[in-house]
Amino acid sequence: MDIHKMEKREQKAKQFMLVTSILGFVVMLAAGFQAALPFSWSIFLLLVAFLFITEFFAIPVWKGATTLGFPIVFTMDLLFGLPLTLVVYGVVILCVNALQKRSVHILSFNAAQLVISFLGAKGLMLIFVPVLGRSLETLPETMFYTALFTFLFYVINHTFVDLVLLIRPQPYRFRDWKQKTTVESVGMMISIVYLGLFFLLGNQNRGEVVDIFSFFFFFSPLVALSLIGASNVKLRREKDRLLGLVNLNEDLNERIPDKKWLAGVEKNLSKLFEYDGIGIWTKEGSTWTNQLSLGIADPKKERTNLDSFEEKYRELTVAPSPIQKDEQVRNSFHPYVKTAVLCPLKVEGDTAGFILIGKTRSGRIRPEESKMMKALVNQLEVLMKGRSLIDEREHRMILQERNRIAREIHDGIAQSVAAAVMKLEVAKRQAPGKPDKAFELLHQVIPELRSSLSEIRESIYALRPFPTEEHGLVQALKEEADRVRSLEKGTQITLTIKGDVPILKPEKEKLVYTTFKESVQNALKHAGTASADIVLTSTEDEVILEVSDAGVGLVLKEALIKARKGKHFGIVNMSEEAGRNGASFQIDSEAGKGTKITLSVPADR
Fold first, then answer.
1. Peptide bond preceding 299: is omega within 30 degrees of 0, i.e. cis?
2. Confidence band, pLDDT 50/70/90 cuts, at residue 417
3. Residue 31 and residue 76 in contact, taking contact as beta carbons nearer than 8 Å
4. What is the mean pLDDT of the chain?
5. Which residues face 601 on adjacent strands?
6. 189 in Cβ contact with 71 (< 8 Å)
7. Which of 267, 327, 348, 417 is deepest in the core (most CB within 10 A)?
8. How far is residue 465's CA from residue 460's CA, in Å, rounded to a whole number?
9. Does the predicted TM-score (pTM) go above 0.70?
10. Rounded to whole angstroms, how far apart are CA atoms 599 and 578?
11. What is the 3-class SS of 470-529, one letter each residue?
12. Could you give the CA distance from residue 573 to residue 580 in angstroms, rounded to a whole number?
């Protein structure tokens, strides 16, 4: 749907709401001229107060909320007549929507459509229920009248809202209609039951005087249900938000080193605040990169727009509503968006990113939503600062590794090659007169060059990406097992994978791989056996590597002493690396009975 068609449909929706509002206010104005003063001001004011409370505080129902004011409106109609009821109902809804900071066109539409719905239900009752031609003498007739009246009111009210949602360009899916209908149906059933009790108790005729206290005690449970339900909604919403914020912080902190550091954030993001579209952008140098795009967020924004936002919006800002007033903001959002929030991400005082939040409904952002948005901004700023520190550390480590390799080449390979070159030059000079000595030097140089070549290959291999980074843990283990089998003829390496092995943090996968490789090498070189059984097991809480052989076995104390004195620190390194990664490392071995190495690595959550 192009922008012109969308604007046309949006305009039609506004026109429908305007016509409904005008019609509703005309009804209220006409009713005002016909309304009679209440016979009891105390009862009247009590019902008005109760109506305001029940309409202001909605009770939770499934994934939404509904109000319980209809039984009170129905009672006011019975006691004080339809004209006064329509006026009071409209004024109360206007006040409630004003306190909830609804926009003017929504405020007037809500009041008008409820007044028209009540009047329409009353008119249909006059047409289709012949019993209204005489007084309602029996309780079943009264109950039937009440249930039908309530049903018609909710149907008409429901239809008004559906028409607006269908006319608007924003998608109104069947599941949305189903959820809305379910919520309203629960409110309707509560109203029918409560009014049924009203007539049932009134029909008992106990000779008691019906005064303000009777109405107070009868409607107090309804008001209490609204207050308790609304408090429960607020507490539940705040609990979900806090839980979502905690889970979001945990997920983000775990993913600080990852390239896709915002993966999975959407499952908790929706708990913090309502949005129809959200995009998170980061800036490196002069380049903007889209890190996250959810809902109707449009990732195809021009970099120049974000550059201009950087100068214009230096703190969390709600763009002018409707955003059509600001062409720059409007062009940066999906055409459905009516309210835009722009949140810069600051790192050390400089803009390092932007969060763009869009809503399809125009209006202000609630204070609690604004707080959660700021909390999200603060968390992302801390995360980005952490990522920058990690990048700096990695850069320093790379420089240190380069310097180390340079020293090794200079002190090792370079010296060996230089010595070989000198010997070759000597052999070249001796070749004409002393060929025997020249050949002797050549025989010395060739092994040295082969050794240097081997060192060069090892250095090149060390500079390559780690196998687990290239292929993943399971594939890296399989390829290493195949490599060992191909190099050592007659070697039997059995690798068994149990369960779905999850993706672990890079350092943990490296630990499993190096432990596997070192254990297999120890089994083949020192255990006096040509076979090893490897089992990699994945459970809910950990990944377990077991390497077993049927070799000569070892006495652990002696092996550690030997390892400390020698050049190779396989067992020591494996144990220390396991401790640094929160894993457990265990060796079970007896002389002559083989060795079993077990590594248990906690799974990432």
1. no
2. confident
3. no
4. 81
5. 543
6. no
7. 417
8. 10
9. no
10. 8
11. HHCHHHHHHHHHHHHHHHCCCCEEEEEEECCCCCCCHHHHHHHHHHHHHHHHHHHHHCCC
12. 11
